[in-house]
Amino acid sequence: MKNYIREINNIPQIADVDVLVCGAGPAGMGASIMAARLGASVMLVEAQGCLGGIATAGMMSNWGGRSSSKIMPEIWDLTYEKAKNIGWAQENGCGKDAIYHDIQKIVLEEMVQKEKIRVLYYTMVCKAVVNEGAIIGVIVENKSGRGFIKAKRVIDSTGDGDVAASAGVPYFKGRENDGRMQPCTIMFNIGGVDFERAVFPPSFETKVKTDKGELQDLAKKLLPFPAGHVLLYRQPMPGTVCCNMTNAIEIDGTDSESLTKGVFVCRSQIVPIIKFLREYVPGYEDCWLMSSASLIGVRETRHFEGIESLSKDDILEARYYDNWVVRRGWFNFDVHNLTGSSLDKTGVQHGWKQKNEYTIPYGCLLPKNIDCLLLSGRNISGSHLAHSNFRIMSVCIAIGEAAGVAAAISVKQNIRLSQVDVREIQKYMGE
């Protein structure tokens, strides 16, 4: 086992905490809040200038799916209550799972401040520091320079698993047989939509017939490849819609040059998409660009090896694990086309036949080879197809909550993460 401890000799230590959470997306929010509520001192580091990850900086339309998360409903209620007096139009027909992006940023900051979580924005994880097979902290870099954050337990909620990869946890990328990864997207919002006449196709398989043709067929024919589908979602503000229609294939979210290419491709599609909406989609004749996400949506990169691993059959058969840490998981195989637009041939939406809600066992969060580290969010141990389901934000936040609880218990009892009694974790998880 490589020993990195010598690398921190000349780097200032900027914090010493019980639990360090890397990444403040839904999984990171769940992890940090639950760990703090159980009495752990918590630091949360985030590369963006806000909390929420793809939910806020990524301007995701809605949370989607469902799980046993306790914190997700709290976020929904707090966001709705704060927003309804300054813009949430009830007549728009949005549920609380819709995301009022800027209000949600404020709500999440209020939540972490209430729990006395120390947050560092604009901070990148550089390297995991490993000593004798256990992670003891992380080297980060920001405007202040490089620094070492010492931690008794580290939770990797970076999505791509940057901490786990640096620590030497084995992984594979993308689809098992060829390494291809799901495409990337930049979400954007438009205004000026006539809700009396507008259509809102929520899935690739939703067909909408118009006087000029069926919308999915028209998009595939007229939009610049690899764009070519219509996904439109009501937003809380009057006349506003969130568009999930840009598309960049063959992008590796762990490679900076590839990621930059993905941003360029997606942003170049926004104007053609708006022109298409104005010309072909009822109710969108006068729509205009409001804003686009500052964070590109990366759906898939590394899949890590854990003590246990979730398979497609675990989800399809709704298997119940006694050592569950997440339950009531429900979503479909949301595999975006790996070589073009729309749904991949392996994906299933309208024909989804999951028998019941599934569970995620604790071992999927425990990486092989490294102690004191937990996987959290879409980087847990699972197959390509299983990942297309559990990557949904409603499941990721529950995974994060489980990681936060496990880390706090481990520190409090001074035991290894693998020694934590799963029944103790379950006491704090949602019904």
Description:
The chain is of the alpha/beta class and 431 residues long. Helix content is 27%, strand content 19%. It is built from 10 helices and 17 strands. It has helices spanning 26-37, 71-83, 101-114, 162-167, 215-222, 256-280, 312-316, 384-390, 393-413, 422-426; strands spanning 13-22, 42-45, 118-120, 124-131, 134-142, 145-156, 171-173, 188-191, 209-210, 213-214, 232-234, 241-243, 288-292, 302-304, 324-329, 358-361, 373-375. The strands form 5 sheets. Strands 1, 2, 3, 4, 5, 6 and 17 form a 7-stranded mixed β-sheet that branches. The chain has a 4-stranded antiparallel β-sheet with strand order 11-12-8-13, with helices on one face. A two-stranded antiparallel ribbon has the order 7-14. The longest helix is centred in the middle third of the chain and has 25 residues, at 256-280. The protein starts with 12 loop residues before the first strand and ends in a 5-residue tail after the last helix.
Summarize the structure.
The protein is α/β, with parallel strands linked by helices and 431 residues long. Helix content is 27%, strand content 19%. The chain has two domains: 5-177 and 300-426, 3-Layer(bba) Sandwich (FAD/NAD(P)-binding domain), CATH 3.50.50; 188-292.
